[in-house]
Specification:
485 residues; alpha/beta; Leucine Aminopeptidase, subunit E, domain 1; Aminopeptidase; six-stranded mixed beta sheet
Length: 485
Amino acid sequence: MSIQIIYKNSSPKKTSKNLILFCDYKFDINPIKEFISISEFSYIKDLLKTCDLSKNLFVFELNSQKKLVLVSIKKNKENFEIESLGAELYGRINHGKNCEYLLNSDTISGQHENFLGYLLHGIKLKSYEFNKYKTKKEKRIVTINISGKKNKPSSISQIRFKALEKGTYFARDLVSEPGNILHPDEYARRLVSLRKDGLKVNLYDEKKLKKLGMNALLGVGQGSTKGSYLVTIEWKGAKNNSKPLAFVGKGVCFDTGGYSLKPAKFMEDMTYDMAGSATVVGLMKNLALKKSKINAVGVVGLVENMVSGNAQRPGDIVKSYSGKTIEILNTDAEGRLVLADAITFTEKKFKPKFIVDLATLTGAIIVSLGSEYAGLFSNNDKLSKELIDAGKKVDEKLWRMPLHKNFDKLINSKNADMQNINYVGGAGSTTAAQFLQRFILNKTPWAHLDIAGMAFSKYGGALNSGGATGYGVRLLNQLVEDNYE
């Protein structure tokens, strides 16, 4: 199944096709009278008397071949609420054999300048499916023909929405791939393909990483037959050489837990342990496609955490790229090791304006916040506020969690500079973030987003139908648009 949006030049007054029409929050349908027959108008008006008008939309069966979807435009809707309305609309039209609709944009009224753009954006995000490996694919197409001369998104808005959709889809595709397909070698190859979008992509393979001294990252991947990589993705859209915005992602393509083995139940979900990196990649693709007027860099560490005769052991000590030593007490606390080297490398090489890292880092954040908020940890109040405000606008919510020097004693090691877990217990997400903060060496503004509860949804959400959510692409895009473009 797929969806297509077609813009028509004509604006027919009457039609035999399925219709999508709009009315005000009171369901006053007098303005749509000219687009339907007298009998249809009377029929709908009569039915509305028995309807719960607090709802957003109704579907009326006008005859065996024709439906009318009546959408109410409520007052003071936020952009993400309009997107959710689009998702709801998609859910109501995505069934049956006749899936072609005529949407009349002339019936849209109200003060929102880009209502239709956000509505269609929500429809498209909700329509995403990952059915690549199904031998029998549903070939049905949902078609929305848009007629009318008013309220159409501008060409600039259409480019923006399309770029954001493609970036989000790309992130979702990456997270949805099984581990036997999207191992680090294949992932690295796919990132090279982003060069066609105008991005500068550099791969650091194991030989280069060893030379750089990225032993924290390499230690995680040493038990796998697949390679380990650090990949940088640069976009230079500013006319000057201003400091880039930096985004760093954890890319553990499959996580068995290593010798600190995970329980068998739900281990199959560990294909999405690279969702932080997918968000970074999706964001960079989006910035390139819309020709964003900023400088930005995405850095992802790609590894596979496996068990073998060569795998890292509990009790091993490694020297990170920063020069700091780490005692590995638990091989399942591997994401922070990947990020540690990636964060220091990003700060040292690119000297960015800020660093935002994203990772499915801890189960503890799910205990804390469930699947409603991602955890935010930061050394900078301004960056934190910008992220939280951006998250509210796209309904990808963040909740700021504490960092404090008193947590340091929980990750100090007797045998090395630090240990990779807190064995005392408690504050699992905070001690992980406290660990990461030690790899910011030059006081660069930094934020860590623990997205373990947000990257994948078994039951679906407002703008996704279950599976990979693409969480963070839209949030970070909003951060950039509001504060840096």
